[in-house]
Write a structure and sequence with these properties.
Number of strands of chain B: 19
Shape of chain A: elongated
Oligomer: heterodimer
Bound molecules: flavin-adenine dinucleotide
Distance between the termini of chain B: 44 Å
Structural class of chain B: alpha/beta
Number of domains of chain B: 2
Distance between the termini of chain A: 32 Å
Helix content of chain A: 25-40%
Helix content of chain B: 25-40%
Structural class of chain A: alpha/beta
Number of helices of chain B: 8
CATH topology of the largest domain in chain B: FAD/NAD(P)-binding domain
CATH class of the largest domain in chain B: Alpha Beta
CATH superfamily of the largest domain in chain B: FAD/NAD(P)-binding domain
Order of helices and strands of chain A: EHEHEEEEEEEHEHEHEEEEEEHEEEHHH
Largest interface: A-B, 11 and 10 residues
Largest sheet of chain B: 8 strands, mixed
Chain lengths: 357, 380
Amino acid sequence: MDIIVIGGGPAGLSAAITAKDLGADVLLVDENHKIGGQLVKQTHKFFGAKQHWCGVRGINIANILFEQAQQKGVNVLLESSAVGIYNENNIKKVGIITSEKYMLVETKGIIIAAGAEENMLNFENNDLPGIYGAGAVQTLVNVYGIMPGKKVLMVGSGNIGLIVSYQLMQAGINVVGIIEGMPEIGGYLVHASKIRRLGIPVYVSHTIKTAIGNESVEGAIITKIDKNWQSIPDSEKQIDCDVICLAVGLTPSTELLSQADCEMKYVPELGGYTACHNELLRTSIPGVYIAGDISGIEEAVTAMLEGKIAGAACVQETLENKKADTILSQASYELAEFRAGPFGEKARTGKNKLQKQ
Amino acid sequence: MNTFDCIIIGGGILGCALTYELGKRGKKVLLIEKDYPGAGSTGRCIGGIRQQFSTPGSIKIMMRSVEIFKEMHEVSTKDGYTSGIDWHQGGYLFLACSEKEKSQYLSIIKTQQECGLPVKYIEKEEALKIVPSLNEFDFIGGAYCNTDGQANPFQVLKFYLDGIEKNGGTVLSNTKVVKINTNNNIIDSVITNTGDKFAAPIIINTAGPWAKEIAQLVGIELPIEAERHEALITEPTKKLFEPMIVCYSPSCYFQQFNHTGQIIGCYTPEDPAKGFERNSSSEFLPEFSNRILKLIPALKDLKVVRSWAGWYEITPDGSPIIGETEIKGFWVVAGGCGHGFMFGPAIGECVAKLICKEDSEISLDEFSINRKFKSKEAMK
Ligand SMILES: Cc1cc2nc3c(=O)[nH]c(=O)nc-3n(C[C@H](O)[C@H](O)[C@H](O)COP(=O)(O)OP(=O)(O)OC[C@H]3O[C@@H](n4cnc5c(N)ncnc54)[C@H](O)[C@@H]3O)c2cc1C
Ligand SMILES: Cc1cc2nc3c(=O)[nH]c(=O)nc-3n(C[C@H](O)[C@H](O)[C@H](O)COP(=O)(O)OP(=O)(O)OC[C@H]3O[C@@H](n4cnc5c(N)ncnc54)[C@H](O)[C@@H]3O)c2cc1C
């Protein structure tokens, strides 16, 4: 192979398509049976600028990208995990476990777009059945049509918490409340207004203290907190619910990056540890690139733009392809423009911290 | 304030055991570790503990280590401790795959039995009874000692670190020794990367694979080389076998943790990478899987959770190097050669006794820093 792309979310898909467009032999590997990463469960329409898929449902973006990839001739391995990256005598190999066998595939370049995993919270009884990540609930409901429960307490009012709450209500599952540690709702106004219209109570400056229940969740105790996240005495409140849904952020899935021995750095703005990388998404190891949530938690649009850049830059470096220049400057411009607003501030700060090194 | 009775450089099993044993004997001790305790080889080892060695010195020291592990287990499972050390005596079975290997074991077993070790040669049928999941491949028997065992290296370190704290010792993590001062061939003090100076009349090099670098700080050349060895661990599974199983053709050794159920194992490569290479090789995972499946086919569907690399601290004859150097007060206690974890507790105790001028039944002469490196440990 010329290039192996690990992870078939929006970042990996667009990296694979871009690299293929530039003439590389590309293998895309994803551990799931459906391609698309987080997009698979995003049944809602994206909003924003036209060129960034506005009005298209997440799941359809995944389908369109997958079709493109297949038409162009990207090799795709589903239900296959990349489990190791090796760099021996200047030869790169990726260890891949398919449903049948283990294989080592030699490659010139590697793009790691493994996404992120959901954060957990510390509170009493947080291992009771009935406590889920918001992404997991969204997958159950939107992909498999399974109801996780009847009364959901959502923890976290960022975009994910708000969107998932709204989708749960649409699916006929009662969201009994949304709690938020900060004094204000975290997500975009459009999503917050929908929640308001549905009349879901939002408890700002609150956190969860305890999950109640023996076999599974039967309720929760929440408490008001001050500016320093200390609970305020006598402010506890019991909520009747059978599901507690945690939408408290994501952390880059960096296991492969550490294993490959990329230089790592902890950047809170990006969601935790990630590999140090330059503006072309190259890690400390030549020929090894990252893109999407793994390089810092953002969103699908930035993931796709990063995928484009990583795909083009990886081809440029490993196959010495000059045609990549136009794609690189165009995508870099769009990405900078997309991140220019107030919502891009965290990513801008985080990425600056990484690149200053 | 920066003066101690003893300073120990390197917080692996040897450094921690020694710091603990010296503190227990009333010494004011300081342990300096460049990362965190266990960051070196100790945190990368697979926790096997055996007494089946080929020389009386090693056999006896390991018989003492087993006693200490037992005591540690008893103390650490009592109230007031959060956890034990996951000690378990499941034995060690060295498979013989040829008549030649069999006769080698038979002659070593004689030495071992003379030291009082309950070890015996068993035929294939008996081996299959002890390990029913063992494949009937072409091995003919094996050397078996049922008092060998296993412990969790992290818990053992924690036991020692708790003990060091209780005895009033000091542990400095994230602190690297960068310079060692001497005065007319007498040890004086160490300087750390934080710019601090700590003085003691006795300074001990327990830096494991880095022991050579530390010795070079005072101009001493130690024959200890780092060599990469890899390991992997699986998800937990139901109990499949009791003993650590060691095979030489092809090389592989592995055991199942009795308390937690995972299978953990390694093999010795034909040509191990020298130096501080810490990346996994692309060969290890598939090759180890093939080798272990030949022995225990029942592991076929078990998932590997992770693999990693660490370092053996290799000496010319495969035994540790222990003693005071030509610089008065500067000691070396290192060179565990892939079995330093199991030696740790007894070596810590014996060296502490030596330093405190207590009597000890166990002689460390076999490991003397001044020995000629002639023979080679046969049970690697
Ligand atoms: C609940 C939720 C709702 C969201 N809603 C929106 C939204 O409305 N709009 C928006 O723009 N963004 C949204 N996002 C964010 C957006 O989905 C992510 O930023 C984006 O999907 C990141 O893309 P990615 O390609 O980096 O990673 P992912 O989409 O996470 O894809 C990574 C893929 O790699 C696979 N993988 C990981 N490791 C391996 C391996 N070793 N071998 C093989 N495969 C591997 C994973 O299984 C996964 O399929 C949402 C996120 C969540 C969690
Ligand atoms: C894969 C593998 C499997 C193994 N399996 C077994 C087994 O089953 N049984 C067994 O008994 N043994 C086993 N071993 C061997 C065992 O791990 C080692 O022999 C033992 O841990 C060595 O301990 P140590 O204290 O000498 O060295 P280490 O644990 O390496 O400790 C040395 C310490 O010194 C520190 N240091 C270095 N330089 C400095 C400095 N300048 N300043 C301050 N600190 C410094 C390091 O950070 C390190 O923590 C295995 C080893 C490996 C790699």
